[in-house]
UniProtKB/TrEMBL annotation:
UniProt membrane topology term: Multi-pass membrane protein
Keyword entries, A-Z: ATP-binding, Cell membrane, Ion transport, Magnesium, Membrane, Metal-binding, Nucleotide-binding, Phosphoprotein, Translocase, Transmembrane, Transmembrane helix, Transport
InterPro entries: ATPase_P-typ_cyto_dom_N, ATPase_P-typ_P_site, ATPase_P-typ_TM_dom_sf, ATPase_P-typ_transduc_dom_A_sf, ATPase_P-type_domA, HAD-like_sf, HAD_sf, Heavy-metal-associated_CS
Pfam families on file: E1-E2_ATPase (PF00122), HMA (PF00403), Hydrolase (PF00702)
Subcellular location: Cell membrane
Protein name: Heavy metal translocating P-type ATPase
GO MF entry, a single one: P-type divalent copper transporter activity
Length: 732
């Protein structure tokens, strides 16, 4: 298969999430009831080339029959009978992509975006019908009379009535649901206006009237559907963060029995069970190490940038990653009782609480709808009692309903959010929630995570100067033989200088300590200070130590590289008068050093996920509206607890899903720009409400006085909608 064909194939895959979801669901829930596929989360993929790379390396791996990447969901589904995720994750990571196992049973099959396509289809139908009816109306306006006029009216009705019945379905069904529950939503006056305009037009046509308003009914439907689609697009949110967290839980564990290791579902584990955790595997439950030594990566849960040494007696939490050596762990809590499950419940509760937030347009509609009905009814009653002309009274009532139709009000927020979203998207920021801009404008405190947010989450060697030139090949040979993050950073720095690795004998990694080998008859080591007999003391930077078999061990310092734009972003937010905080699960010296570099006065280190969420909750109790910017599992509860939240695109799926906005690029500067743009957007929204109010103050008395036909009302309503949209476009 050629590269061009591959890229075309990848593009189709990325464009259609349902294409992968269907076969995935069928294979997982097959008649045999056996899960044949392995699903991996790939949080760092972003383009068709990534798809090609991942699929190619997996398909070439022995035992893999097929691999298909879904770019939209950032997942790969691998058909590899008899293999485990632990065997496939290193294959993907060997080409530079981060990978995590997902439990397919915990993920609901992704349904196609039917609602968005449905509204677009109805917009197309109503728009096409509106153009044809307008052409027929021109003939009537030009002076067609008697039978000719009636014929054009009947043809218009034949087009308009099915169109209104089909295209107006979203408004009719919503209005019916509201009325059944004793409520008057915005869709009730819309539906009445559509029905009245159509009914009056049919009546006029049956009685050879001079005016029929089929064009008004279809035009009204067309503009309202546009507003509904804009609202849908700006309010559409990604999958549930709680669901993503649940899927990240390991679906099975290897229980140690007298007959050997037995694979069992995690749900079947009970306190006291012994389970074996292989190198590179995620910890499936809470427990305590019974045997073995290794290093544990806790960055996903706690934000600690450097792995911690692990040995018998150390407590582990579900979701952490075992790096270097095999471990046997005694289970203390599993399934719903695990720390990861408690974090999931915390996120779900925070999501539910934040879901009560109501937008400006929703709050305005609570008063708007009853007022519209009251005005239309009073107009009908007044004209009927004054003239005893039922036909005239109904026409006036219909004109009032149409002219006060909440189209401009419905567009006031979506039009602004759409314009602002376009501007922010060009700056690399994606808005997921329709009320995010409104909430962002209220922010008066910004809370940042450290690892992966203000920093890139990747250690970087400070300097190669401590390593003698003739010892650098030895350091490279040792470092490239280890999977430890500091060793990998050292290897990268040495390779960039053109260093070639030395030939070492008896190269072996000691779990939890480091790596050793023999060079020119001397034992050389790279690893922890206590393993090499070095005195490390207190330091603000992460460090590894190199021993050349003679002389004192060499200290190698590493720093976490700042994310581009971090300094400018923080400085701009501080200058705006907002409060800035840094909350991190990392060690205090490291967090303090970063806070000093960025000029952040308020910081806390060693913060747990629950403590982060509590810190955000306290800020809200103080009357502040905090923004949370974070990227890890340890940030998801805080992201949902915040007034508004942002995650980088490099964040885990769960963090991106929990956030209201996603930073697509690596530059953090757009975060500060978004705060300023949000305030401008709020001003435009208020201006749009003012336009809608002034329009109603001027137009409603004209309609009540009987000077506006339903067609004139529809044209005036359209003019107000266009004015609101043009005002919103000023943001661009």
């Amino acid at each position: 298969m050629s590269d061009a064909t591959l890229h075309d194939h990848d593009a189709r895959l990325s464009a259609c999430p349902a294409c992968d979801a269907a076969p995935l669901a069928s294979r997982i829930a097959g008649t045999r009831g056996v899960q044949e596929d392995i699903v991996l989360s790939l949080p760092t993929i972003h383009c068709a080339t990534c798809i090609t790379d991942v699929e190619r390396v997996l398909q070439r791996h022995p035992g893999v029959r097929d691999a298909r990447v879904n770019l939209t969901l950032r997942r790969v589904t691998v058909d590899a009978p008899g293999m485990t995720a632990e065997e496939l994750i290193p294959v993907v990571e060997s080409i530079g992509y981060e990978a995590h196992e997902l439990d397919p049973a915990a993920l609901s099959a992704s349904a196609a975006d039917r609602q968005g396509r449905d509204i677009l289809m109805r917009i197309g139908v109503s728009g096409f019908a509106m153009m044809n009816i307008m052409i027929l109306s021109v003939a009537v306006w030009s002076g067609a009379e008697d039978a000719t006029r009636d014929m054009f009216h009947w043809i218009s009705g034949a087009i308009a009535l099915p169109t209104v019945a089909f295209a107006g379905q979203p408004f009719f069904s919503s209005a019916w649901r509201a009325l059944r529950h004793g409520r008057l939503g915005m869709d009730v006056p819309i539906s009445l206006a559509l029905i009245l305009a159509s009914a009056i037009s049919v009546y006029e046509t049956l009685h050879s009237g001079h005016h029929a308003y089929f064009d008004a009914a279809v035009m009204l439907c067309f503009f309202l559907l546009i507003g509904r689609y804009l609202d849908y697009r700006t309010r559409a949110v990604a999958r549930s963060a709680a669901e993503e967290l649940t899927a990240l839980e390991v679906p099975r564990a290897f229980r140690v029995t007298p007959a050997g290791d037995e694979p069992v579902p995690v749900a079947e584990l009970v306190p006291g069970d012994l389970i074996r955790i292989r190198p590179g595997a995620r910890v499936p439950a809470d427990g305590e190490i019974a045997e073995g030594s290794s290093e544990i990566d806790r960055s996903l849960l706690t934000g600690e940038s450097i792995p911690v040494a692990a040995g018998p007696g150390l407590a582990l939490s579900a979701g952490e990653v075992n790096l270097t050596g095999p471990l046997v762990m005694r289970v203390t809590a599993a399934g719903r009782d695990s720390s990861l499950a408690r974090l999931t419940a915390l996120v779900a509760a925070a999501e539910s609480a934040r879901g009560h937030y109501t937008g400006l347009a929703d709050r305005a509609s609570r008063l708007y709808s009853p007022l519209v009905h009251l005005l239309a009814f009073c107009s009908f009653l007044g004209w009927y009692l004054g003239t005893h002309d039922l036909r005239l009274a109904v026409n006036v009532a219909a004109a009032v309903l149409i002219i006060t139709c909440p189209c401009a009000l419905g567009l006031a927020v979506p039009a602004v959010v759409t314009a602002a979203s376009g501007r922010l998207f060009r700056r690399g920021m994606l808005i997921k929630d329709g009320t995010a801009l409104e909430r962002l404008a209220e922010v008066d405190a910004a809370v940042f995570d450290k690892t992966g947010t203000l920093t890139m989450g990747v250690p970087q060697l400070v300097s190669l100067d401590p390593i003698p030139t003739d010892a650098r090949p030895v350091a490279l040979a040792l470092s490239q033989g280890s999977g430890h993050p500091l060793s990998q950073a050292l290897a990268q720095a040495l390779r960039e200088t053109g260093t070639e690795p030395a030939a070492l004998q008896d190269l072996r990694e000691v779990p939890g300590h480091g790596i050793s080998g023999v060079w020119q008859g001397r034992e050389v080591r790279l690893g922890r200070a206590d393993w090499l007999g070095a005195r490390h003391g207190e330091a603000t930077l992460s460090a590894s130590w190199l021993s050349l078999g003679q002389g004192a061990p060499i200290r190698l310092e590493f720093s976490d590289r700042l994310r581009p734009g971090a300094e400018a972003c923080v400085a701009r937010i501080v200058a705006s008068g907002r409060r800035v905080m840094l909350l991190s699960g990392d060690a205090a010296p490291v967090v303090q050093d970063l806070a000093r570099r960025l000029g952040i006065e308020e910081w806390r280190a060693g913060v747990t996920p629950v403590e982060k969420a509590e810190a955000l909750r306290r800020l809200r109790q103080e009357g502040l509206h905090p923004l949370m910017v974070g990227d890890g599992l340890n940030d998801t509860a805080a992201l949902t607890e915040a007034h508004v939240s942002i995650s980088p695109a490099s964040a885990l799926d769960a963090a991106r899903t929990a956030s209201d906005m996603v930073l697509m690029g690596s530059d953090l500067a757009p975060v500060a720009e978004a705060l300023e743009l949000a305030r401008s957007a709020r001003a435009r929204i208020k201006e749009n409400f003012a336009i809608s109010l002034v329009y109603n103050i001027v137009a409603v008395p004209i309609a009540i006085a009987g000077f506006a036909t339903p067609l004139m009302a529809a044209l005036a309503m359209s003019l107000s909608s266009i004015s609101v949209t043009l005002n919103a476009l000023r943001l661009r």
